[in-house]
Design a protein that fits this description.
Helix content: under 10%
Oligomer: single chain
Number of strands: 22
Order of helices and strands: HEEEEHEEEHEEEEEEEEEEHEEEEE
Radius of gyration: 28 Å
Structural class: mainly beta
Largest sheet: 9 strands, antiparallel
Length: 475
């Protein structure tokens, strides 16, 4: 009998207490979530979704939830949740064990990585301040949304992530990651693989989100540009005007039996807001309206295509894979030009993980290549210098419309911008800050028909290359 009692006593001393979802059972714990967005609150809509993975690090077990980004946070289980919403009843008062409140200043911004978290030598990636350790799966149960949740699907302004404010999980020591979900622009197959993995071979650090890519002219690509000739066809496109990717991780904390613990996230973008600035110099010849050798024109709009965008982002530590890149196209800010102006300032902005530089400054294809297409027009004048009328035009004036294309290898510009730090393995990098600027030194000189060759490409100045078709046609 003594031996039997000893065995029973030892077998009961385990931290892996299987969760019983019956409310009267004592072996349960709950978590609540809060978000501190700080200055990024303006980028978040109430019906955006955040995905949270709760990872128990001892006697491995994991659960996943999809929640709203605004407080009070509401959501539903996506993996390993109770079988019914009734079993996940709201508890009474919150028990001690609340995580520390992060800074809430509007101008607070956490860099990735921290000052002491820079990539190290010998190919080892330094983890950001809140590192996530490996985990394996035990158990599988997915909760379907309740009828009350389904009933709100026709109301886009209401968060579509469920009604739970507390989430019942097994007691133990957990680490948490939270990231913004955008199924329209990204693929999260690694998340599904990790949650379904029963072998323990896939680690939480192996979870990447991947941008969806499209070929030129794909109907699924938003804002496709008609008559765009791609002179850098090495890779596919991601959607233009993509949304920032926000994420945060929390260090391990104990979730005690019977407790309700609040986990507070301060999501920060793992993507960069990159401003692109350059100047168009107009080479005019103002000898008289209507004369054969007179050159005057308007710049109407400019489109920008940037190559070298990393396709994959690690959701556990924010690192980027830079051996697979893609391209993104966007329209520059509105152009306000006059017929006789000699220069036009151009500004465009993209939100991407970062931009990979080309291996050499002398090539015209591959990552780090910027392509532009300039839409311009000139007014048609008669011999007396009067504008020729055309009733089909919105302003009633006849025009000759043209498109001018060019590209530039931003090898030196990207080196000076220092957008990211590459790890010694050459395959991974971490972005240096949430913002970056590409100030292109060389002006793009246009004579109304073509981009003129730069006279000086020495001293680290990236030169523009003309790609305009020699036959100019109306578009």
């Amino acid at each position: 009998m003594a031996v039997v009692f000893a065995v029973v006593a030892l077998s009961s001393c385990t931290t892996d207490v299987d969760l019983c979802y019956k409310p009267e059972h004592p072996h349960q714990a709950k978590v609540k979530y809060e978000f501190n967005w700080g200055s990024y609150a303006k980028n978040i809509a109430a019906n955006d979704s955040m995905y949270i993975i709760a990872d128990r690090v001892i006697n491995h077990w994991k659960a996943a939830m999809k929640v709203s980004p605004v407080n009070p946070v509401r959501g539903r289980f996506m993996f390993n949740g109770p079988e019914t919403a009734d079993d996940n009843r709201q508890s009474g008062e919150e028990t001690p064990g609340v995580t520390p409140e992060p800074p809430a200043a509007d101008d607070f911004e956490e860099e990735l990585p921290g000052e002491s978290d820079k990539p190290v030598d010998e190919g080892v990636l330094a983890s950001p301040r809140r590192e996530i350790t490996e985990s394996t799966r035990a158990g599988n149960s997915e909760q379907e949304p309740s009828d009350s949740e389904t009933a709100t699907d026709t109301k886009p302004a209401v968060p579509q992530t469920g009604t739970l404010t507390e989430f019942q999980i097994r007691p133990g020591d957990y680490k948490f990651i939270a990231f913004r979900v955008n199924d329209e622009e990204m693929i999260y197959s690694d998340v599904d693989k990790y949650l379904m993995d029963e072998t323990g071979e896939m680690r939480l650090q192996d979870i990447y989100a991947e941008y969806k890519v499209y070929s030129k002219g794909d109907e699924g690509l938003r804002k496709t540009l008609v008559d765009w000739q791609d002179y850098n066809p090495y890779a596919q496109y991601i959607q233009p005007d993509i949304h920032p990717v926000f994420y945060d991780t929390l260090p391990a904390r104990r979730i005690e039996t019977g407790a309700t613990v609040t986990c507070r996230f301060s999501p920060r973008p793992v993507t960069q807001h990159i401003d692109i600035n350059f100047t168009i110099k107009k080479k005019l010849n103002l000898v008289g309206k209507g004369k054969d050798n007179d050159v005057r024109f308007f710049v109407d709009s400019v489109w920008i295509e940037m190559a070298g965008v990393p396709r994959e982002i690690n959701l556990a530590n924010g690192y980027l894979k830079i051996d697979r890149t893609c391209k993104v196209m966007t329209k520059a800010d509105e152009i306000k030009d006059r017929e006789t102006s000699t220069s036009v300032k151009v500004h465009g902005a993209i939100d991407v993980p970062s931009i990979v530089r080309n291996n050499t400054p002398d090539v015209g294809t591959g990552p780090g290549i910027l392509q532009v297409i300039i839409f311009a027009h000139s007014v048609v004048y008669d011999e007396k210098g009067n504008a020729v009328p055309n009733p089909s035009e919105s302003d009633g004036i006849a025009k000759k419309k043209k498109k001018i294309q060019g590209k530039i290898n931003l090898y030196n510009t990207l080196r000076n911008a220092n957008l990211m730090t590459v790890a010694s393995d050459g395959r991974h990098a971490v972005r240096n800050g949430a913002k970056g600027v590409l100030n292109i030194v060389a002006d793009i000189v246009v004579d109304g028909n073509n981009i003129l060759e730069n006279d000086d490409n020495t001293g680290g100045i990236d030169p523009w290359v003309d790609c305009t078709d020699r036959i100019i046609v109306d578009i």
